[in-house]
Amino acid sequence: MAAKQISFVDNAYLNLGPVIMLQRLVLICSVVAFQAIAQSQVVRTIGPQDPEAGASHKYYIDLLERVISRTEAEFGPAYIQQVPHPGQGRVLRLLGQNRFYDVMWAGSSAQREVSLKAIPVPLFKGGLGWRGMVILEQRRPVFARINTLEQLSHFVACQGEHWPDSDVLENAGLVVARINRVTAMMEMLIKKRCDYLPLSLFEGPSEVSARQHRMPGLVFYDRLILKYPLTMNFFVHRSNEVLARRMTAGLQQMVQEGELEAFMRDHPVTQHMFPLSQYRQARVFELDNPNYAVPALLEQPEYWLGLP
């Protein structure tokens, strides 16, 4: 039986103060959904951060739904409720306070592993740290001539304000403009206030495609790749042991049975990545990530993809 989604994401709420917005929304969701979910667990997670963020967001929601469905026999039925996204930093704080959200996804870091409980299975099998870049199409020849990290350091990268990637790039000596939303980062590219936007090879093409109608000058350039250890994980509050066990069990089963990689190969957001041999001729700059240590569980090869 598939996990049922209940989504009450209304952009009007995004204009309210963050706490008031979430309090009102949770109250409405509770009243409307009460009869349907009275005997079931509700799993609250983040909705899209902006109207154009639905591309990669759908990957995580579909994967969350698959995990919930897979574990229903052991843990019982559950419903996914999407709550508006007030920004990653704020969601991290609210989840850490055990308020409004039960699970979110984010790039892992040492700090997040302390304040929250990470589900120790990488959602892209390690591919989050393989970064192509969104650039202006007219600048393809410029980036085609970049052969060293020192050359790249003369350009400005747009990157998420609260993303661990920003720390990785800065640690490597690259110039970073920290921005809150992906759409705002792309607008910065159009206005030439930054030169490139590193996004994972999995998410980048879908994020560009979702905005192509009003930003036709942008392309995803994957002939130059930044590669560093980083995983995307689900996170829950440290006291939510039941949900943590459920998420871990479902994802580990998917990995061990080959279902997670099959999911990635089939999903519209990630299927373009395969076969991985298409990146064999790309220039790859390997960077250190001082804020990430591979958990012992993930030393097993089945949890990782191999970039050629």
Description:
With about 300 residues, the protein is α/β, with parallel strands linked by helices. The protein has two domains: about 5-125 and about 230-275, Periplasmic binding protein-like II (D-Maltodextrin-Binding Protein, domain 2); about 125-225, 3-Layer(aba) Sandwich (D-Maltodextrin-Binding Protein, domain 2), CATH 3.40.190. The protein is about 35% helix and about 20% strand. It has twelve helices and twelve strands. The protein has helices at about 20-35, 55-70, 70-75, 90-95, 110-115, 140-145, 150, 165-170, 180-190, 205-210, 240-255, 260-265, and strands spanning about 5, 40-45, 80-85, 105, 115-120, 130-135, 155-160, 175-180, 195-200, 220-225, 230-235, 285. The strands form four sheets. It has a four-stranded mixed beta sheet with strand order 9-6-10-12. It has a three-stranded parallel beta sheet with strand order 1-3-2, with helices on both faces. Helix 2 (about 55-70) packs across helix 11. It is globular. It starts with a strand and ends in a 22-residue tail after the last strand. Residues about 5-15 have low confidence and may be disordered.
